[in-house]
């Protein structure tokens, strides 16, 4: 696919703490381990969580001398312009320039958006071939997708993020003559069954038909995801020789979650290579 335009995967959600960076890094490493060339762009220039994840990964390689597949990485820094319109234009141009470079040399580009509504994140959504939105099993997260009647639990209207995605989908169709495949994942799932979790399971399948997204299971609430960040590792790295970490049932379950998400994304040529993970 390199040389013919990379497939762009945007990880977006207007709420922080939903696990976007964890999803972005695991997707990137999964694609790398399947033999694809991957570029990563971090648009959250304040926290730079994805950038720190990649930096931690390179530091681990330098320290242990154990080679790991590495993505190409770029970050769009904030403009110093005083006028907002000029700053937005400069940041957009910087994003487009970095993206163009990756489009010519990568098979996939993974873009990690900040957990807020900013102009650069909106622009990134308009170039997305695939949009992944992780949400926690929380009614606060659900409200971003759709507003529910508190008595009947029926969908009253689209939430602020769903409305935004709808607008940006229309813009993409006008400018790129293509749509956006939108996948919502339930992330940080607890193993415990509770009323909130059951309601989410009931409501989301109904909402997807109206709001135009596909639904998939995301990543569970597992310590291993947070633990591996410090080393820049992912659960897909743990079977590699030279990584001294005992595999547990929880680790294997986490690997299955990542593999399942990659399969559900319907990315070009990916499902044919899942057995390489």
Automatic annotation (TrEMBL):
Species of provenance: Magnetospirillum aberrantis SpK
Species lineage: Bacteria, Pseudomonadati, Pseudomonadota, Alphaproteobacteria, Rhodospirillales
Top-rank taxon: Bacteria
Name used for this protein in its record: AAA family ATPase
């Amino acid at each position: 696919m390199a040389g013919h335009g990379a497939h762009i995967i945007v990880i977006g959600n207007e709420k922080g703490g939903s696990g976007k960076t964890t999803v972005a890094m695991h997707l990137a490493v999964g694609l790398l381990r399947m033999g694809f060339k991957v570029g990563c762009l971090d648009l959250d220039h304040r926290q730079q969580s994805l950038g720190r994840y990649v930096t931690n990964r390179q530091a681990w390689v330098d320290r242990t001398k154990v080679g790991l597949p590495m993505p190409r990485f770029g970050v769009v820094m904030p403009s110093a312009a005083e006028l907002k319109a000029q700053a937005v234009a400069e940041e957009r141009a910087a994003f487009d320039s970095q993206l163009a470079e990756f489009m010519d040399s990568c098979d996939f580009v993974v873009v990690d958006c900040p957990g807020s509504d900013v102009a650069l994140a909106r622009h990134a959504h308009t170039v997305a071939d695939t949009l992944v939105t992780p949400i926690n099993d929380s009614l606060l997260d659900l409200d971003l997708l759709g507003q529910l009647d508190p008595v009947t639990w029926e969908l009253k209207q689209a939430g602020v993020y769903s409305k935004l995605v709808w607008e940006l989908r229309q813009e993409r169709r006008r400018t790129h003559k293509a749509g956006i495949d939108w996948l919502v994942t339930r992330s940080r799932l607890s193993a415990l069954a509770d009323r909130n979790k059951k309601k989410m399971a009931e409501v989301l399948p109904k909402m997807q038909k109206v709001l135009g997204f596909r639904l998939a299971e995301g990543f569970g609430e597992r310590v291993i995801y947070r633990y591996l960040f410090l080393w820049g590792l992912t659960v897909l790295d743990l079977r590699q020789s030279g990584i001294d970490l005992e595999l547990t049932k929880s680790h294997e379950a986490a690997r299955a979650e990542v593999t399942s998400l990659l399969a559900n994304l319907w990315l070009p040529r990916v499902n044919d290579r899942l057995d390489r993970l």
